[in-house]
Structures are given as C-alpha cells and as structure tokens.
Amino acid sequence: MKKQDCYYLGKIVSKFSFKGEILLKLDIDRNSSLKFKSIFIEIDKILVPFSILKMSLHKTSLLKIKFEGIDNEKLADSLLKKEAFLPIKDLPKLEGQKFYYHEITGFKAEDLKYGKIGIIEEVNDQTSQPLVLVKGIDNNQIMIPLVDDFLVEILRDKKKIIFNLPEGLINL
Q1: 170 and 150 in contact (C-beta within 8 Å)?
Q2: Alpha-carbon 69 to chain mean position
C-alpha cells in the first residue's frame, strides 16, 4: 500500500495496558464509521499492515486497539508516536455539499463574481478554520477559508467548486 492511496487516521500516543494495547489519537471528522479490521502504521517510511483483534472508542478522540502479535509493553512501545493510515478506497462516498478534503485536490475553484480563481492544491486543516490553498491563474497562492457561507456548489463531475467570496478576499 502506498501512502498516497491512504488517508491519515491518527497517531499512536500511548500504551493502554501491559498486554500491548495502545491508544490512537484520531484525526478524522467522523468516527461513526470505525469498522475496520486492520490499519497501516508507518514504520521507517513504509506502511505496515496490522490486524486488529479488538477495538473500542476511548473518550471522544482516542481509539483503544489490541493488535494481533502485539502482546506486551515492549512491542507496544515500538509503535508509540507512529502514524496510522487507512485506504482511501474504503471511505464511504459522500454526496451533495459534503466532501473529504483530499477529494477536492485538483478541483477548479471559481467565484460567482470574480470568475476563475485557480486550482485547489490542498486543504490546510491545521488552523482554527480550514483553508483551501489555491494556485491562482497568475501562479500566486490564494487562501480561502472553508466556510459553509462561502461554498455555493460542488460539481464533482466537472471537478469544480463554486464559491461566493467576500469582496477583496482573492486579492489578499
């Protein structure tokens, strides 16, 4: 499995028991679809599959996991601070105005008043408000806050997102 074919699930932050259980801090929008039997953990820049024996939600953003073959503290220690991934193909399809951030990479961005803005390069969700990073027509970078009020329509078949942005936002 290649990293570009996966999405980031979260990071292993601590051990949970002396039997090898770990706590994975989730970094996903919804945790209602946590029904997977294995995950990939990045070890030395390689995604390694791990089968899950037992898994449960612990508090709100932690997942307690017991992996097959990880049965003591020493083995669990080797997984600490490692990142976990799942295949993109296993994500449920979203429709309408809902989308995954990785899904809109490469989409054209347009504004109702301004017209063509550019191509979406990525979504930065590490800020308090997610930002769409667009490579503008003039090769400049434009940051658009990902706010429901600005989003008019997603045209998946045309790989296009239409915004209604406040005056002057594009020129910042």
Answers
A1: no
A2: 28
CA angle 76, 77, 80 (to 5 degrees): 95
Is 35 a residue whose pLDDT tops 80?
no
Neighbours of 78 (CB within 10 A): 12
Return the pLDDT at 142: 92
Sign of the dihedral defined by the CA atoms of residues 103, 105, 108, 109, in that order: positive
Residue 64's pLDDT is: 94
For residue 122, the tally of other CB atoms under 10 A from its CB is 15
pLDDT band at 31 (very low <50, low <70, confident <90, very high): low
Cα-to-chain-centroid distance, residue 155: 21
Helices (H) and strands (E) in the chain, counts: 1, 12
The two structure tokens encoding residue 166:
């406040």
Rounded distance between C-alpha atoms, residue 83 and residue 160, angstroms:
31
CA distances to 54, 63, 90, 113 from 35, rounded to whole Å, are 11, 12, 10, 43
Convert 25-57 to b/e letters by CB count within 10 Å (16 or more is b). Answer: ebebeeeeeeeeeebbbbeeeebeebeeeebee
Contact 73, 16 (CB under 8 A): no
